[in-house]
From TrEMBL:
PANTHER family assigned: HTH-TYPE TRANSCRIPTIONAL REGULATOR RUTR, TRANSCRIPTIONAL REGULATORY PROTEIN
Region forming the signal peptide: none
Protein's name according to its UniProt entry: TetR/AcrR family transcriptional regulator
Record keywords, A-Z: DNA-binding
Keyword DNA-binding (UniProt): yes
DNA-binding region as annotated in the record: 42-61
GO terms assigned for molecular function: DNA-binding transcription factor activity; transcription cis-regulatory region binding
Protein source organism: Mycetocola manganoxydans
TM helices/strands, residue ranges: none
Pfam families: TetR_N (PF00440)
Chain ranges of the HTH tetR-type domain: 19-79
Length: 222
């Protein structure tokens, strides 16, 4: 085998091994962050849960905050993909009839049912937000992450809203920020009210309030 081919194959194997190591560390961090809190979670705890040493951790992440952002990127990507699948399946069924408050509510509810935001992710996000509020250095990265998340989500939802003949009555990113805040509050309320399961999908408050909120924030495209 020519040396250059052997070198390329070795690099591919090492890249795949490194990717698996990162994935295991991210999975372990997800569990530990939810169990102990982001602040209390140590590099040693995460490494041990993943079955690695501290050296393996620091070969992939400089800090546990960097690891959190890698986890957030993965979780958000899953949710964006799920939302796009819903757009591709649900919106073509809407037809050309004007959306009423009731039909818009039914549409929003169907999208909520696609989500599987679990209890762990809600807790981990809330924990990290508190950490960012206490640490100015972390806060700067958190604000940038949150802004990027909202921009991506706004682009996706604004296109979906336009495809059914509607537009937001305020700046789309501001509207999406309001919707996201209500949804997160609904998730937290469901947990506080005693939901002990791993999954808290489409909590009652979101089902009740989001359709009315979306209706209030949109209007037909004239």
């Amino acid at each position: 085998m020519p040396p250059e081919i052997e070198t390329a194959e070795t690099a591919q194997v090492e890249s795949a091994r490194r990717r698996k190591t990162r994935d295991r560390l991210i999975d372990a961090a997800y569990e530990v962050f939810a169990e102990t809190g982001v602040h209390a979670a140590s590099v040693e705890m995460i490494s041990e849960r993943a079955g690695f040493t501290r050296g393996a951790f620091y070969s992939n992440f400089a800090t546990k905050e960097e690891l959190f952002f890698a986890l957030a990127e993965r979780e958000n990507r899953i949710r964006f993909e799920r939302l796009q699948e819903g757009v591709d399946v649900i919106l073509p069924q809407v037809g050309e009839a004007a959306l009423t408050e009731r039909s818009l509510g039914e549409l929003v509810t169907r999208f909520l049912e696609l989500q599987s935001d679990d209890r762990r992710w809600c807790i981990v996000q809330s924990e990290f937000k508190l950490l960012a509020m206490r640490n100015a250095q972390v806060a700067a990265s958190y604000v940038a992450y949150q802004r990027n998340f909202l921009e991506q989500l706004t682009e996706q939802i604004d296109a979906a809203v336009g495809s059914v003949g509607l537009r937001f009555t305020i700046e789309p990113i501001e509207a999406i920020g309001i919707i996201v805040n209500l949804y997160e509050s609904a998730m937290q309320a469901a947990i506080l009210e005693g939901d002990d399961g791993d999954s808290v999908s489409a909590p009652p408050l979101a089902r009740a309030a989001l359709p009315a909120l979306v209706h209030a924030l949109t209007e037909p495209i004239s």
